[in-house]
Amino acid sequence: MPERRHRHMNDGIKTALIIGATSDIGRAIARKLAARGWALQLAARDLARLEREARDLRVRTVAGVTARRCDALQADGGVSLLEELDPLPDVAVCVVGLLGDQADSQRNIVAAERVMRTNYIGPALLMGALAERFEQRGRGVLVGVSSVAGERGRAANYVYGSAKAGFTAFLSGLRSRLAGSGVHVVTVKPGFVRTRMTDGMDLPARLTATPEEVAAVVVEAMRRGRNIVYVRRVWRFIMFIIRVIPEGVFKRLKV
């Protein structure tokens, strides 16, 4: 019979899979866990770059670091990666994402599909497949990094936002389905984050987090078994206000 007791980080979880490990946020999470002595399974599309990151991390932890290619744009969302994992990780963190360009996505169906697949279809397929394996084992933590952009469609980024909304809803349903199974699902919703993806954008300093801040929130959410967390916390209040604005007013704001 599988073990049904939910285990948090401080109960001895030692292996973490990070999908999207070459992203700024993925790297920050990997480094934070490496500093705590975790074994790391890194996955990303660019294997050469991933291997460089793995070499750097191997000097930060004695627990071991592996690197494997995973492409969320593949038809299966990169699920074939899971057959290569040994051991099955205790925690899986999905940081796969692509901001894209709204104007380009409006004109170019290929660009729009790439944004949708990268932010929703691929991550959802991966998390769903991991959930099946974790549920069979009877324990584990799944962390999906979504975005506050998924809470309401905005004219400025509705292709990206709609994909993040889908991923957020998927994680919510997964969390509900797995309640009581020993598997916990965490949804992380950053606002603005200063990364390569947002390089050159004029972001408000008081609302903009660093990758290291996101990493700290992810690790704390894992440790405490949180359901939904915002980065920074002020975004919870901001998004509440945005959600309650009447549609007739909201569509005239052009935000």
Distance between the termini: 52 Å
Instruction: State the low-pLDDT regions, or none.
Output: 1-11
Query: What would the CATH topology be?
Result: Rossmann fold
**Architecture, CATH level 2?**
3-Layer(aba) Sandwich
Name the CATH homologous superfamily.
NAD(P)-binding Rossmann-like Domain
User: Domains counted in the coordinates: how many?
Assistant: 1
The general outline is globular
Helix content: 40-55%
**Rg measurement, Å:** 18 Å
Question: What count of helical segments does DSSP give?
Answer: 8
Order of helices and strands: EHEHEEHHEHEEEHEHH
Secondary structure: number of strands: 9
Percent of residues in beta strands: 15-25%
Query: What's the main sheet like?
Result: 7 strands, parallel
Side by side, the strands of the main sheet go: 3-2-1-4-5-6-9
Short description:
By secondary structure, this protein is of the alpha/beta class. It contains 8 helices and 9 strands.
